Every structure is written in C-alpha cells, then in structure tokens.
Amino acid sequence: MRVDRDVLRANYEEIVRRSGDRRVVASVKADGYGHGVLDVSRALADAGCDSLWTGHIGDALAIRAAGIDTEVVLFGGYTPDQIPALVAAGLVPTVVDLTGAAAAASCGAAVYVKVDAGLGRLGVPVDVAGTVIREMAGLDGITIAGIYTHLPFSDRAGREWAVSKGAVFTEMLDGLARDGVRPGFTQMWGTCGLLADLPDATNAVCVGHALYGMSPFTDPTLTDAELQPVLTELGASLIHVADHPHDVRAGGYLTRGVSRVGVIPFGVTDGMRRVDASFEPHALVRGQRVPIVGTSLEHTVLDLAAVPDAAVGDRVVLVGRDGGQHITLTEWATSIGCSELDAVLAVAGRVQRRLAGA
Ligand SMILES: *Cc1c(COP(=O)(O)O)cnc(C)c1O
C-alpha cells in the first residue's frame, strides 16, 4: 500500500480552513486509521498539528518515543489506577469518572473530561456531567484542560440526532461556565459535524476520517468536501499465470467459465474479503480491468481473459491508477462489501507500506 503524505497535508489544511477559528486536533487512533501511526503523526506534526489523540497506549508511547513534539492525548483504554504512570510517560489522559479524576489529581495532572452526550459509550453521562465536572474541578492538583464529547453519524436521521445531542452538551458547558468552570478546550464535532457544517459553540474539532480522505457518511449528500484518500495505491504482483480447461473443476474459481487465470499473493489475511461475485470486484492489469474471481487465505485469483499477454511479475492494482483506468478506494471498499475505513484497516499491519510525498 502507498500512503501519500502530501495528500494528508492537503486534507489537514482543508480541514483547518473549514474549521475557521476552531483549533484542529487529530485522531490517529487505530494505527492512524490503518495508515501507520508514526508516519501519520510525523506528517501531521510537520503540517502544524499540535495535538494527536489515540485510544491505544502503545501507539501513544511510540509517538512520544519517536520524539514527535506534540501533545499526545489518550481517548481511553486504561483503568484509573494506570493514570499516574501514563502521566509520568508524558501522555495526557481522558477521565470519565471521579475515580479517574482523583487518580489524576493525585499526580497533579492536566486531563480532558469526556462526556457521553448520547452515543452510549465512554464518558460522564451528560445529565450528571455538570455536577460531576464541578466536583472534579474542585479536586486539589487537577487541571481540567478540556471537555469533549463524540457524536458521529452517517445519514440524515443521524444528523438530526447529533444536532439535538450537541445542543444538550452545549447547554451543559454553558452551565459550567456560569459556575466559573471554563476549560481552554471544548469540542464536540469530528469529521461528521465538521463536514456537515453543524452549529458549533465549542472552540475545537477532533478529526479522524476526513484527514485520511475517508467518508463516514452512507449518505454522500451530507457534505460537499472533496478530500482525497491518503491511501493512493494498493496492489501486488502476479506470481502465477495459467490456462485451465473449462472442465477442470466443477466448483471453486472456475465456475464462471474462466480459463486463463492469474494469482496474486494477497488474500483474506492481507485485507481481501470473501465476497459474492455479484459485488464484482475488479483489479487492473496492464491498464485493463479484470474481474477478481476468488480468494483464499493468502491468494486471490483474477480472470485474465482480457489481458492475454499478462505475465508473471506484472503489477496488479487493486486501488489506484493504471493506464487510463482508476479504481478508487470507494470502489474497492464497495466491491469487497465494507466501508473505506474497514477496507484500509483490513490491510493494516500485514502489507508492506510505502511512503510517498514529503
Ligand atoms: C474517533 C474519534 C474522533 C474522530 O472521529 P472521526 O469521525 O474519525 O473524525 C473524535 N472524537 C472521539 C472521542 C473519537 O473517538
């Protein structure tokens, strides 16, 4: 897979532009959404981002160890008793309850407080958040650096839900401000709220998907943003080309009457998915579109009828350009039956990554 840092920087700059006066912090969770957390973190820091957020302690420590000089914030991923050690390692924890806040206070830490405004996952429940955060703010030794929530959505009904939950969160923040609790950082929108241009009274956004050029929306009309995928190519080499008589087997790869096949060393283990032929996944070989006819753990088989001169060693493009043809990340993800993010995450770790751009 090829990861293009120039595209990442361009996406970051577009997000900064759309964010107006709001501070932009970057979500690099899930190994930088599958693109490689250190490469992504370095490129974002070089582009001017000063705060990187992940829920993985190992990734957060790796960012610190790599000498990347930004704030590194943990979304979560630990129990309260681990907080002093995380703070000592130079990380900024999120707390979601009074036990966590007390642990942070005991070591004089600055923390972010996460509020659950309706997602039903991590955070102080919004209906008690005012009371709980006031109590947290009263603890000796604690600094509340910020308060945030997360309200992702994918369609128009979700958009309405996010707007109404966001209003409740904003009201809670207003109540805290009246009582003198005014943290320097407040945030509720990620990619969804930013790209759908939802009302925002906070002073920051925490963006993941959009940085990597991936859409969180099932309804594409929710945004007019034109962000490019940072994964600019995914491919492999042909390791075998063979002719098979049509009756060689009744089942398996040759059910569609395919006689000339090519094999690439890219299987389910590497990020391919077992899909029904009705999804019609394709690859590019010598500038031609060819059907993918089957996959197994470590191999995928192509129908090479359209490219009779294809030979062992030829480049096979699953995502990217070849000749005048282009398979987009969106097409690839759709044709293997998952989201763009899940398609990239499936590749992560196993496949060799090449960096492009500066
Ligand atoms: C993942 C995450 C984000 C970023 O969300 P995107 O939709 O990828 O932009 C923001 N805030 C929290 C708490 C998250 O977990």
Give a brief outline of the structure.
With 358 residues, the chain is an alpha/beta fold. It is built from eleven helices and 19 strands. It has helices at residues 5-19, 29-33, 37-46, 57-65, 83-88, 98-106, 126-137, 156-178, 191-195, 329-335, 340-347; strands spanning 2-4, 23-27, 51-54, 71-74, 94-95, 110-116, 124-125, 143-148, 185-189, 204-207, 231-237, 240-243, 260-264, 282-285, 288-295, 300-303, 315-322, 325-327, 354-356.
Overall description:
The structure is a single chain. α1 (5-19) packs across α3. The protein has helices at 5-19, 29-33, 37-46, 57-65, 83-88, 98-106, 126-137, 156-178, 191-195, 329-335, 340-347; strands spanning 2-4, 23-27, 51-54, 71-74, 94-95, 110-116, 124-125, 143-148, 185-189, 204-207, 231-237, 240-243, 260-264, 282-285, 288-295, 300-303, 315-322, 325-327, 354-356. It contains eleven helices and 19 strands. A hairpin with a 2-residue loop joins β14 and β15 (288-295). It is α/β, with parallel strands linked by helices and 358 residues long. The chain folds into two domains: 2-222, Alpha-Beta Barrel (TIM Barrel), CATH 3.20.20.10; 231-356, Beta Barrel (Lyase, Ornithine Decarboxylase, Chain A, domain 1), CATH 2.40.37. The longest helix is centred in the middle third of the chain and has 23 residues, at 156-178. The structure holds pyridoxal-5'-phosphate. The site of pyridoxal-5'-phosphate has 13 residues, from α9 and β10.
